[in-house]
Amino acid sequence: MAVGILTAASSGREYGGRITSFVIMSCMVAATGGIIFGYDIGISGGVTSMASFLEKFFPHVYRKMKEDTHISNYCKFDSQLLTTFTSSLYIAGLISTFFASSVTRAFGRRSSILVGGAAFLMGAALGGASFNIYMLIIGRVLLGVGVGFANQSVPLYLSEMAPPRYRGAFNNGFQLCVGIGVLSANLINYGTEKIKGGWGWRISLAMAAVPASMLTIGAIFMPETPNSIMQHSNDHDKAKQMLQKIRGTLNVETELQDLIEASNVSNSIKHPFKNILEAKYRPQLVMAVAIPFFQQFTGINVISFYAPILFLTIGLGESASLLSAVVTGLVGTTSTFISMLLVDKVGRRTLFIVGGIQMFFSQVIIGSIMAAELGDHGEITKEYAYLVLLLICIYVAGFGWSWGPLGWLVPSEIFPLEIRSAAQSINVAVNFLFTFIVAQTFLSMLCHFKAGTFFFFGGWVVLMTAFVYFLLPETKNVPIEQMEKVWREHFFWKRIVGNKSSSGTLI
């Protein structure tokens, strides 16, 4: 099957420049938004497996875990209130991302990042100080607002600041920071669980303030992207000066001209959420919905949110379960770093497909072992428990170099400037919607589906891998403002978008 591939050279419009220390530092600060997201993902699963936390806020779950031997292994943690603690963040993020779209479009990417860091900082403080379930949930909602703003703006910032040839590596820095956040949270949970007196969970929740402070303070000093400067101020000279600074060359006329053309189209569109429904944006709209949907139905949140609970289910102790979560976090971070090195060389599609195959087979084997060895009231042997841990690591590695980073990279680089902020909000909203659904239903699903839960997500992995193979064109090395050409050269999408650019000119 032929898939249209475009590089800057093939388009006849090469950009000058190199990787500068200025752009590296700017993107490192912005990518801290990934740390706050990852930290929250990792911390919630750890504290919900701590006996002292459950005893204080979810006593009915604590009693089932400690006292009731008649409940199925798969059902001990089934509690809608417990899942609400985890999932409330994502429904708040879903709503806030649409407000973030307006801020990002009107005031720039940096402003949204600043709001996100400040909201997350307040949520961390409230969570660490909580003495009842209401404070706990309100703190999670504030964290959700922070993540909603950060996830809407950070991937856009990274894609717009990065040189086209290295955009994949730069943008994957977001997911790398998500992995660092998860790993840090798992390490902190492992340490705080050992604190005598049962108050270690407070440290776990409050430590989210550290990356939030880094992001908030850093955002004050971050430069705005040239794309955003053009979009909300239309200052050609200022955009040119920023381009020269981040590219390390005076020769930026070609890229500047593309920015001016994209900005003119963007400024002519007053209702981007309405315009994105037009046929010429149909591929981008499909990807804005399908990619985040599939990312959540890989089943990764089975691991990310509830890894310690899952390891408790298969018979590991509380401390061993938290340590096992550290191991999977380390694997995820390492594999994402590998993705950074490969994504601009082998391309997005190859990593998607290889990762999908790897995830599918590991999920099927995990489900088979749990079905055959665990049962409702039995105990899995330590050998099988550690085999499951190994297979989970293989699964996490597959996600770490495919749907993890690429689920954020691809949507952030394919949207034209005129719909970029709106489309990214749709992308984040869909992501958070299905994160909420998976987080809210997983413990109940585990109770009812038992080992079949892994076959359920494995089936989705097959479907999403086929989707990528047939419908996603390769986008490596394509300048972000020339991205629309990949759809006009793709065997399927060219029938829908035709042969005109978004500005209406014939190609």
From TrEMBL:
<feature type="transmembrane region" description="Helical">
    <location>
        <begin position="384"/>
        <end position="404"/>
    </location>
</feature>
<protein>
    <submittedName>
        <fullName>Hexose carrier protein HEX6</fullName>
    </submittedName>
</protein>
<keyword id="KW-0769">Symport</keyword>
<feature type="transmembrane region" description="Helical">
    <location>
        <begin position="350"/>
        <end position="372"/>
    </location>
</feature>
<keyword id="KW-1133">Transmembrane helix</keyword>
<comment type="similarity">
    <text>Belongs to the major facilitator superfamily. Sugar transporter (TC 2.A.1.1) family.</text>
</comment>
<dbReference type="InterPro" id="IPR036259">
    <property type="entry name" value="MFS_trans_sf"/>
</dbReference>
<dbReference type="InterPro" id="IPR044778">
    <property type="entry name" value="MFS_STP/MST-like_plant"/>
</dbReference>
<dbReference type="InterPro" id="IPR003663">
    <property type="entry name" value="Sugar/inositol_transpt"/>
</dbReference>
<feature type="transmembrane region" description="Helical">
    <location>
        <begin position="112"/>
        <end position="131"/>
    </location>
</feature>
<keyword id="KW-0812">Transmembrane</keyword>
<feature type="transmembrane region" description="Helical">
    <location>
        <begin position="285"/>
        <end position="314"/>
    </location>
</feature>
<keyword id="KW-0813">Transport</keyword>
<feature type="transmembrane region" description="Helical">
    <location>
        <begin position="81"/>
        <end position="100"/>
    </location>
</feature>
<dbReference type="InterPro" id="IPR005829">
    <property type="entry name" value="Sugar_transporter_CS"/>
</dbReference>
<dbReference type="GO" id="GO:0016020">
    <property type="term" value="C:membrane"/>
</dbReference>
<dbReference type="InterPro" id="IPR020846">
    <property type="entry name" value="MFS_dom"/>
</dbReference>
<feature type="transmembrane region" description="Helical">
    <location>
        <begin position="19"/>
        <end position="39"/>
    </location>
</feature>
<feature type="domain" description="Major facilitator superfamily (MFS) profile">
    <location>
        <begin position="26"/>
        <end position="476"/>
    </location>
</feature>
<feature type="transmembrane region" description="Helical">
    <location>
        <begin position="200"/>
        <end position="222"/>
    </location>
</feature>
<keyword id="KW-0472">Membrane</keyword>
<dbReference type="GO" id="GO:0015145">
    <property type="term" value="F:monosaccharide transmembrane transporter activity"/>
</dbReference>
<feature type="transmembrane region" description="Helical">
    <location>
        <begin position="425"/>
        <end position="446"/>
    </location>
</feature>
<keyword id="KW-0762">Sugar transport</keyword>
<dbReference type="Pfam" id="PF00083">
    <property type="entry name" value="Sugar_tr"/>
</dbReference>
<dbReference type="InterPro" id="IPR005828">
    <property type="entry name" value="MFS_sugar_transport-like"/>
</dbReference>
<dbReference type="GO" id="GO:0015293">
    <property type="term" value="F:symporter activity"/>
</dbReference>
<feature type="transmembrane region" description="Helical">
    <location>
        <begin position="452"/>
        <end position="472"/>
    </location>
</feature>
<dbReference type="InterPro" id="IPR045262">
    <property type="entry name" value="STP/PLT_plant"/>
</dbReference>
<feature type="transmembrane region" description="Helical">
    <location>
        <begin position="320"/>
        <end position="343"/>
    </location>
</feature>
